[in-house]
Amino acid sequence: MSQPQFLTPEESFSVDAALLTSPEKFLARLTISSQRLLLIIAKEHHCAVEDLDYQQIIQWFENDSKTRIEKGVEEAVLKW
What we know:
It is a single chain. By secondary structure, the chain is mainly α. Helices cover 62% and strands 0% of the residues. The two termini are 15 Å apart.
């Protein structure tokens, strides 16, 4: 699986240039990245992002963690 880009350099630059406090900039980056991840999760569940529920999100993280443990970090979506 190719590594998705959760925050582009241009988006990061725009966040840096925004008139926000450091905590607000962190939250903006987190929110942009989370939107991208939610799109991945929704695609795997064959539904719209707004139709995801918390259980599907938890299940996705469990599955990605299992992939990382069983197949290695390069096979997981999240590379940590």
